[in-house]
Every structure is written in structure tokens, then in C-alpha cells.
Amino acid sequence: MIVVTGATGNIGRSLTRQLLAEGASVRALSRNPESAGLPAEAEVVQADLTGSGSFDRALRGAEALYLNLAAGGGGAVGQVIDAAVEAGVRRIVLNSSLSVTGTPADDENFIARMHVAAEQAVRASGLEWTFVRGGMYATNALDWAEGIRAAGVVRGPYPEAAAAPVHEDDLAAVATRALLDGSGDLVGKAPYVTGPQAVTLAGQVAAIGRAIGREVRFERVSPETAAEELVARGLPKEAAFQLIGYFGSSVGTDPLITDEVQRITGRPARTFEEWARDHAHDFR
């Protein structure tokens, strides 16, 4: 039995499908099982990683756990890990972040600090572990969906900011291999998982336009305005300003690109063009 937290999120849904396709038994955790919309083959169990409830039922009989802080587990991560140890879980695969560098710079980065703390807690558990350190998610572009649907416009300060966006299906594929890894090759490893090519934000906007058959333009705004808009959508202020600063610092640079998707899964990483076509319905 493999337990998947964040099962109704972008990565979690893909991971649940891929594990089931491999013949694994999956217990998918959701705050609202009745509206989860997950495959019937998955056992869907109510659990809230933002609360203080027990995770005993969710983890009972499980061999492996996929832990995603996006499910709200930042505060409860220690409790979840303790419950996993108590339940006899053998392995944890943590959805971590490319922002984790293992250097003092991690202390200055909001996103890195959160994931470093989780990584340390998993290491301290004594369980087998793999940290999937994902790069910029292609799904971040979903934040543009409302503006694209309404007016064909994306607002931001740095259209030439560059990244190597990674498809959620590739992150899920790497996690699938780590959860099912019988050889132990991925135990104790922390692969950096990226998309296959550098794409500017303007390039991402253009790719979405091609996917939906509409012109989509990039409207430049100040860094301060962009950060405040992120805060208004619920991102902590420190994280919002650091994210905008990251975009600015990436202009004219070459982002880290790895071949970990190919190496671990045996298939090439999906391009942003593929992601845009897969998600065209979200922007129409």
C-alpha cells in the first residue's frame, strides 16, 4: 500500500494514476473524499494535513508514503512522519524543491527553508527516503488562466525571465519510480528534476497562445505590483518578493537543466509546448 498526500493536486492526481497503472495499491488522502474525483481503484481516505487530527488510519498498513507540503503539511509534517514511523512505513518520498542547495543560502530563501526543514525531519526518521527536488512547475502558468480567458493578457515584470518548466506528469513519474524502487537505487538520493529546455516567460505565454489558437500578450508591470498581486492571491509576502526577485535574476541566464527524468523513467522530459497542449482547456 502506498499513501499519497495531496492526491487531488496536479502532481498527486498524476501520481495516483501512474501508481495504479503499475498495479500498486494506492490510498489517496483528501480533505473531501466525496468530491475528490479520483480513480475508483484508489482507496480515498479523509485526512487534513493542515489540522491536528490523527493520521493512524491513513497510514495503517502502508509501505511507502508520498509527502507533498503543498497539501498543507508544512506545520504537520513532523506529526505525519512520526505517524509513518509508528505505522511501520518503510519509505518516504518527499516532494522537495530545486531551491534547496545545501548551502547557507538556503537560510535566506523562504521556499528552501520550508523544504530543508521537511528534508531534515524525514532524514531524522530513520526511514528510507528520496527527495524529488523539482524545478519550476509548468503548472505555475495556471495562475495566468483567468487573465488569458478574460482578455488574452498575462501581467508580469520580466517577460525574458528564463526557466526550465517541468511537467507535473514527469514529477509524478519520478516519484512513482522512487516509491516502487525495489533495487534501492533511488534511496538516499535527491534528484533535481527539471524540464528539458529553457523557456522565457514570454515564450511560455506564446506557447499557450499557440495551444489555444489565440493571441496572448505579455503586459509588463513593475516588480512591486507583481509581488503585491501574488500576495493578494495568498502567497506569503516574503515568498512573493523572493519569487519576483528570482525572475529578475534569471533574465539573460541559463537555467539548470538536468536529464533526471530520462535517466530515472527511461523517457524524455515533456516540453512546455506539450504541457500547454495538455492544459489548453484551462485557458479557453
Describe the structure.
With 284 residues, the protein is α/β, with parallel strands linked by helices. It contains twelve helices and eleven strands. The protein has helices spanning 10-21, 56-59, 77-87, 110-124, 145-151, 168-180, 201-212, 223-232, 237-250, 260-265, 272-278, 280-283; strands at residues 2-4, 26-30, 43-46, 64-68, 91-97, 128-134, 153-156, 162-163, 192-193, 199-200, 217-220. The strands form three sheets. It has a seven-stranded parallel beta sheet, sandwiched between helices. A two-stranded parallel ribbon has the order 7-11. Strands 8-10 form a two-stranded antiparallel sheet. Helix 7 (201-212) crosses helix 11. It starts with a strand and ends with a helix. The model has no long low-confidence stretch (mean pLDDT 93).
What are the low-pLDDT stretches, counting only 5+ consecutive residues below 50? none
Mean pLDDT: 93
**How many distinct helices?**
12
State the helicity in percent bands: 40-55%
Strand content: 15-25%
The arrangement of helices and strands along the chain is EHEEHEHEHEHEEHEEHEHHHHH
**Which sheet architecture does the biggest sheet show?**
7 strands, parallel
